[in-house]
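From: lab user (bench 3)
To: helpdesk
Subject: output format question, protein + adenosine-5'-diphosphate

Hello, I'm new to running complex predictions and I'm not sure whether the block I got back is the full result or only part of it. Here's what I submitted:
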Amino acid sequence: MTDSIPILEADSLYHVYESKAEGGNVVALRGLSVRVGVGEAVAVIGPSGSGKSTLLKSLGGLMSPTAGRVFLGGTDLTKLEGSDLVEHRRSTVSFIFQEGNLLGDLSALDNVMQPLRHAGVPAREAKRRAIEVLERLGMVPRMKALPEQLSGGEQQRVAIARALVTKPKLILADEPTGSLDPFTSQSVIKLFKELHKEEDVAFLIVTHSRDVGEFSDRSLELRDGRFVAQHGEGVELDDLTQNRELIVDDLGTVSFPPDILLELGGPGRYSIDSVEPGRIVLLSQDAATAAAAGNRRQLVADCPACGHEYSDAEANRCPDCGSSRPKA
Ligand SMILES: Nc1ncnc2c1ncn2[C@@H]1O[C@H](COP(=O)(O)OP(=O)(O)O)[C@@H](O)[C@H]1O
Ligand SMILES: [Mg+2]
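Helpdesk reply: Thanks, we reran it on our side. This is the complete output you should expect:
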C-alpha cells in the first residue's frame, strides 16, 4: 500500500445495536480499524454474525457507527449529514448487496441509468453509458425486462452494472456472488478484476467465495466484531491457518481465532517465556489445558448457531454457517 491518502480509513469503529429484548444490546463492532489504499482490493471473511454487514454499512455511511470515525476519500463521513452525505457517497462509492439492489418498477436499463440521471447526466448520455456496462455483463438482450422477469443471477448482473456505471473509486460489496451460479460468479469476478486493474477501482468485498478471496490483494478475518488476522493473496478459505498473520490492535490487544486458541490449549493463564521485538513465547500455566488433543474430545455435538450435527469429531468450525465450535 502507498503512503498517499487512502480511499477508505476507519478508526476504532464500534457499533452497538440497542435492544430491550432479552439478551440486551448487541455489540456488533468492537473497536476495529481498517485502511484501504486507492485501487486496492480487500476481502473480508468471517462467520455469519461476526459483523461483516454492519461493518460495510458503517464504512459506506449507510449507518452511523456508535463510536469511531470513517474517512471516505479523505472526508470524515461521521461529520457529514443529509444531502452532503448523500452527495459525497454518490461521488465516491457504490454498493452491491447479495440481493434487493434493484428498483422493482424500473426496467434493467432504467435501473442502471438511474444513478447517472440522479447525478444530472443527460438521458442520451446516461443511456449510452448504461448500455456499455450492460454489454460487458452480457445483459443487453434482457435490458428491457423488469427485475421480477429476470433470474437471480441476471438481477445481480444488473445490480453490478448499476454499481459500476458511475465509475466509483470504491465498491463496497456484501456477498456479491452469494446468489450466483459458479459460471456467472466467475464472469462477475473477471469484471471486478478488469476494473481493479484498468481503472484503479478499490474494492472491499465481504465473501465466502474462493474466487473473490483469490482476486483480493489481502483478506481480513473478522471474528466477533474485531479483525483478528490478515491473509495474503489467494487465501484458502477451508484452511485459514495457512499464511495467517495475527493482528495486534492499537490498544495492544490480540484476539486469537478460535482454531488457534484451541491449538494453543484454550482460555486460561499463560506465562511469558520470552519477549523480544517482534516475538513472544507463551507457556500454558495449566499443563492439562495445553493438551489440545484432549480438548478436541470435549467439543459440542451440534452447532449452537445453526443446529448442524457434527459427524466429524475433530472439526472445529461449522461447515454450514462457519461458526467456531465451542467446547461442550
Ligand atoms: N438490526 C439489528 N438489530 C440488532 N442486532 C443486529 C441487527 N443487525 C445485526 N445484528 C447483530 O449484530 C451482529 C453482527 O451482524 P451482521 O453485521 O449482520 O453480521 P454478518 O454480516 O457477519 O453475518 C450479529 O450478532 C447480529 O445478530
Ligand atoms: Mg451479512
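A quick orientation on your result: The chain has two domains: 8-107+164-223, 256-328. Let us know if anything else is unclear.
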